[in-house]
C-alpha cells in the first residue's frame, strides 16, 4: 500500500495542496503499523516536538485560527510527507518515483513555455502557468523558483554522479536539467538566480574533485550561458528586475531589510517563546514599517528570523535541531552507500537553507512537503538494507 500512496503523491503534489493533504491524512490513518516510527525515528520525533510546541503557543495567540492553520501546514509539509517517504522500502520503486516526479514537473514547465510564448492562455485547466511574462506554475514566484532549483539540483547531480544510469536515463536527465534551469531563469526570482549559481559551483567543484573530469562542466557552463543570455535579452521584465536591484531603491529588498530589523526587535521583546505562530505580521508595529504596499505579508522573509520572532529562541533551537538531524543523517547514508540521490539532497538542502535566509519557503507545505518526502525516501535506504 505504501508504494501506491507514494506514486499517487508524486502526481497529486504537483497540482496543489488540497489533494495531497487528503492523501497524506488517509495514508497516515491506514498505515498504523508504522506509527512506532514516531518514537524511533529522530527526525519524525523532532518535527512532532516542534509542532506540539507550536500548538501550545497557538492556544495563547491573539489570532488563534491563523496560528493553528500555520501549525497544520507544518504537519502536512514536514511530518506526514517524511513519514510517507520513509515507509517506502523498495529501491526500484524509489528510483521510478523520483524519475516520475521530475518528469511530471518537467511536463508542466514544457506546457508553461507555450503559455509564456503566448501560444496558450496564462491560466487553463484551472492551473496558472504564466504571469507578468514569467513562469509561475501552481504557486508564487519564489516558491516556484525554489521548486525548480530543487529539481534542477536533483537532476543535474544524478546526471553527473549516478554511475549506473542507462543512455535513455541520461538523455532524459539532460532534458530535465535544461528545462529546470530555464524555469529558474523565467521565474524572475533573483534569490534563486544567486542560489542556483552558488550551488552549481559547489556541485562542479565536487564533481571535478571526485572524477578529475572537466568536459561535462564545460558543457553545463556553455548551456547555462546561452540560456541566461537568451532570457536576459528577450525578457524586458526580468531584465528590469535585475537592473533595479538595490538595497536602498528596490522595494522588495528594502521590505526584507525592514522586516529583518522588525524580527530582531520582536525577539528582544519576546525572547524565549516569541509572539506565537504567524503572529508577527498582525502586530501594530508591523503595520508601521516600510514594505510593499500591494502585497499581503504572511511572514518576515527569513525562515530563521521569522521562526525567532514567532516561536522565540526555543522554537528556533527546535527548528535547527530538525535541520541538523536531516543533514547529519544524509551525510551518514552518503558515506555508507555513496548514493548520488542522497548527495543531490545534501546539495538541495544547502540551497534551501541559503535561499531561506531571505524567504520562508520551508514553511510553505507546497515545497517543504517535497523536501521532506524525498528526504524520507533517501533515509529509508538504511532500513531497507537492514530488512
Secondary structure elements and their pairing?
Blueprint: H1 2-12, H2 17-30, H3 37-40, H4 42-58, H5 64-86, H6 91-116, E1 123-124, E2 127-128, E3 130-131, E4 134-135, H7 141-161, H8 167-187, H9 190-211, H10 215-234, H11 236-243, H12 251-269, H13 284-288, H14 303-337, H15 340-355, H16 365-386
Antiparallel strand pairs: 1-2, 3-4
Helix pairs in contact: 1-2, 1-6, 2-5, 4-5, 4-14, 5-16, 6-8, 7-8, 7-9, 7-15, 7-16, 8-10, 9-15, 12-14, 14-15, 14-16, 15-16
Structure description:
- With 387 residues, this protein is an all-alpha fold.
- Helix content is 73%, strand content 2%.
- The protein has 16 helices and four strands.
- The chain has helices at 2-12, 17-30, 37-40, 42-58, 64-86, 91-116, 141-161, 167-187, 190-211, 215-234, 236-243, 251-269, 284-288, 303-337, 340-355, 365-386; strands spanning 123-124, 127-128, 130-131, 134-135.
- Strands 1-2 form a two-stranded antiparallel sheet. Strands 3-4 form a two-stranded antiparallel ribbon.
- A hairpin with a 2-residue loop joins β1 and β2 (127-128).
- α15 packs antiparallel against α16 (365-386).
- The radius of gyration is 21 Å and the shape is globular.
- The two termini are 18 Å apart.
- The relative contact order is 0.14.
- Residues 382-387 have low confidence and may be disordered.
